[in-house]
Amino acid sequence: MKLKNKKILIVGQGISGTMLSWFLEKAGIDHIIIDDESSNTPSKTAAGLINPVTGRRVVTVWLDEQILPFAEKTYNEIGSFLDIPAISKTSIIDFFPNPFMKESFLKKLSQQAPYISLVDNDAYLSEYFTYEFGTGIISPSYIVHLQELLPAWKNYLMSKGRFKNTGFNFLKLQVNSDAIIYDGMAVDMILFCDGAHGYTNPYFSLLPFALNKGEAVIIEAPDLPSDLIYKKSLTLIPFCEQGTFWAGSNYIWDFDDDKPTEEFRKSAEQTLKSWLKVPFKIVDHKAAVRPATVERRPFVGLHPVYKNVGILNGMGTKGCSLAPYFASQLAAHILYQAPIEKDADINRHSRILERTSV
Ligand SMILES: Cc1cc2nc3c(=O)[nH]c(=O)nc-3n(C[C@H](O)[C@H](O)[C@H](O)COP(=O)(O)OP(=O)(O)OC[C@H]3O[C@@H](n4cnc5c(N)ncnc54)[C@H](O)[C@@H]3O)c2cc1C
After folding, report:
1. Cα–Cα distance between 81 and 150 in angstroms, integer?
2. Which of 280, 299, 271 is nearest to 201 (CA)?
3. Mutate which of 9, 51, 290 to test ligand 1's pocket (most atoms within 8 Å of Cβ)?
4. I want to staple 304 with a disulfide (CB 3.0 to 4.6 A). Which of 48, 94, 342, 350 is the partner?
5. pLDDT tens track for 228-287
6. Which CATH code, of 3.20.20.30, 1.20.120.450, 3.40.367.20, 3.50.50.60, is assigned to 7-45+148-207+295-353?
7. Which residues line ligand 1 (CB under 6 A)?
8. Which of 164, 197, 312 has most ligand 1 atoms within 8 Å of CB, for mutation?
């Protein structure tokens, strides 16, 4: 399909929809986004951390050498375009919560693993934190300023008349092999970036999603230096206002709703009381459902049966690092049939998707 002079409809303006829209815009492709502006989406709940290592065994993240520089470059470009700071480069102070985690970190260090080192002089940290097992540094890491980036991109699209604040209704969608009509509007292609709602999306609900809920509290801690990220059992990330920090998170696989829980708030408060030596106050509490997947890999590509229906989803815990790279791949795939990373391409589930009945 030749897409120049044609029109694409994107459903969802989280970080996935925003990045896809950015790459289509750069390629000069006419498109419009529909988003219901829910307040409790993961893109509006996340602190925007990009951490190059993951887990107890301090493992380097998947495709780090491609994905991380690409994310940094993309956020800097869109930030310059919108005249906002979209990304900051920083470091994480990793407070070892127990001797085993310290041992894992030191073992990786001895193997010359990238991104990790020891703090030259961490004595100053004891002015702010209680900790017993020492610290390491993870660097570079990044904070994507989602709270500025998402509204700024929405405003840009609105100024062009290309953003619709409304819920998407599948009953109004008609997909034919040569055209799509949505609520009276004709488009050539529809791309779903609908996050956890993908789980009930009739075109993609057969994909192996593994949704999980996560929470964070926002604290005021004006005496805590705000140039670094601090990680122990919670991660403290400098947030929008000077002196405020985002503190999260948890992973709940069995949940009835997407609301914040009293249990998390209490345990976060307790953890912060025993970790921080400076005064703090909880000023907000957020929760959202992550669009995670069984294989921990995203869902990217066009439907094998409905070839003008596509998806960019399944970002799990890492939307900020994965979305730019895979949005760019999906845009290039649509425009030039460029290949999509094998482990992310929904083609790996084509046999399941062929059973889609809409
Ligand atoms: C507590 C928590 C902390 C996190 N921290 C981080 C972090 O630090 N770094 C990181 O990289 N990731 C983090 N994540 C994960 C990250 O938030 C997700 O990977 C990412 O936000 C997913 O983005 P998305 O655009 O795919 O989906 P969403 O953010 O869910 O966006 C989907 C959009 O589609 C809209 N939509 C859906 N259905 C419809 C419909 N029918 N009609 C109209 N609009 C619709 C929604 O309103 C929403 O705006 C965190 C998640 C949580 C919950």
Report:
1. 13
2. 299
3. 290
4. 350
5. 999 999 999 999 889 999 999 999 999 999 999 999 999 999 999 999 999 999 999 999
6. 3.50.50.60
7. 11-17, 34-36, 38, 41-43, 45-49, 167-168, 193-197, 214-216, 248-249, 288, 290-291, 313, 315-321
8. 197
